[in-house]
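$ ./design --mode recover --in tokens.txt
reading tokens...
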């Protein structure tokens, strides 16, 4: 199991803010994260899994 530091904690607003700030489509990423967090899709994911998921959905990482 990955360490707690590697997991994306969708319950903390600053995590969603941070991840969305890494992408050109900041607002759309934030909306995507909120939608997939509320339905449980990305529960207990590492940051790497999350970044791969966002890339698969066409978002462009800038950082």
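writing sequence...
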């Amino acid at each position: 199991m990955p360490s707690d530091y590697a997991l994306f904690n969708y319950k903390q607003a600053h995590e969603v803010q941070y991840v969305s700030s890494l992408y050109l489509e900041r607002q759309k990423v934030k909306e995507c994260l909120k939608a997939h967090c509320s339905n449980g899709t990305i529960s207990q994911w590492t940051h790497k899994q999350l970044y791969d998921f966002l890339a698969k959905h066409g978002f462009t990482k800038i950082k």
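exit 0
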